Amino acid sequence: MLFNSLAFLIFFSVVYCVYWALNHRFRRDFLILASFVFYGYWSLLFLFHFVLIVVLNYAFYYFFERQGDKKRLAWILLLNLINLFVFKYYPFFKQILGDLGINSTGLPETNLWVLPLAISFYTFQMISFQMDVHRGDFQYKVSLRDFLLFILFFPQLIAGPILRAKDFLTRIHVPKNPRMPFAIIGSWWIVIGLIKKVLIADQISPWIDTVYSSPGSFTAEAHWWSFYGFAIQIYCDFSGYTDIARGCSLLLGYKLPPNFLGPYFSSSMREFWRRWHISLSTWLRDYLYIPLGGNRGGATRTNINLFTTMLLGGLWHGANYTFVIWGAWHGALLGIERWINSKLSFFKKTPKFISALVVFHLVCIGWVFFRADSLVHAFAFLQGLVNISGEKLKLPWGTNWILIAFVLLHWVEFGGIKLKSKRVKLIALYALPIASILAGFWIAGSVSGERSFIYFQF
After folding, report:
1. Are 144 and 46 a contacting pair, CB within 8 Å?
2. Which pLDDT tens digit goes with each residue over 288-309?
3. What is the pLDDT of residues 392-441, one digit of tens each?
4. What residues are labeled active site?
5. Which among 147, 132, 123 has a CA at the least distance from the CA of 50?
6. How far apart are CA 47 and CA 374, in angstroms?
7. What string of H, E and C letters represents the secondary structure of 334-385?
8. Residue 391 — φ and ψ, nearest 5°?
9. Is the distance from CB of 161 to CB of 259 less than 8 angstroms?
10. Cα separation of 83 and 117, whole Å?
11. In whole angstroms, what is the distance from residue 312 CA to residue 331 CA?
């Protein structure tokens, strides 16, 4: 069920009305039921699989988990990682064996393998819960009902943000009441998210797909348009999903953490990862980088830990060599940046707008590997950036306006929306319905079909 679909509009409208009509004692149960419906709409079989994994995690936590017992923790982490490996990485594992010339004919075939929706996100969320319990962040027993809502909460279930148990569960029992500020801000987020997704990302994706499907056969101009275009597409697609998720959650009385803060204005790679997919980058830092040793073992060890963390972060995104290269690219850049900052102090005097341009282009090079179907296509695309001849790309009408809208939205996200004066608040209150209506008509007139969110594949 896509956020940008009529089915979700009907679904959320019913959930919203029933949720607030119920007594507060039954609202959590209703949200769990709604989350079952939301996930089951895609696949009843994988809903059963999902619930089974959730219940197994809770049973282990309730009956076997003990604070500080590393052996017991290892067992439940292994269960979650095996589940992720079987469904997401087994086909890639077979491919690696074949590329190495190792006979794998005795292993099960992968032609009918299906990736369960959101498996990467909910696996990370359950791992973080088990590790938080192991560290002693919870001194009370979490009920099955609260655990189910924490994992299944439908606005963020499919593509995040990745929730932390200590943030979500400690606020879950706070009484929820309909609040006008929440309704206004939540509605704004939904509208902005739809504009990012439907009016920007979906409108530029067809010509980006065209160039990436036949890299090297178009002119350099076409490749450069797609080079920058995909950076815009993936940002608007993913941050648009997050905006809608946060908006829906706020309308239900739950405040989700921000996942993007103007990442393309970052003046360093380190800053980029503090602004891009924040919930994932903080997860990798707290549950992978720091346990590996963090920056406690000297410069060389720190760079190895950084590289390993980003390499595994790339692999988390997808079972393909391209994602491994993407993760390695960011790991190497972070390590090089640390070395430059420690050895070449004059680079710190570089104007921020120049540093931001350099960082943006380095990120865009990484996006080529993230988007390409294979390493062959990725390198062919990079070579296409200097093509002298080739097929010209015809851009649709209004592309310039789309790019202006992207820059404006990114700047607003970077600077934040501050409603201080009463006059500005009143303008926002009355402008919201007008903006919603205009966006609704624009969306209805612009969309010929529903496009899935990019991060649904992860």
Report:
1. no
2. 999 888 888 788 888 999 999 9
3. 888 776 777 777 778 877 777 776 555 555 555 555 555 555 555 455 54
4. 317
5. 123
6. 31
7. HHHHHHHHHHCHHHHHCCHHHHHHHHHHHHHHHHHHHHCCCHHHHHHHHHHC
8. -75, 135
9. yes
10. 13
11. 10
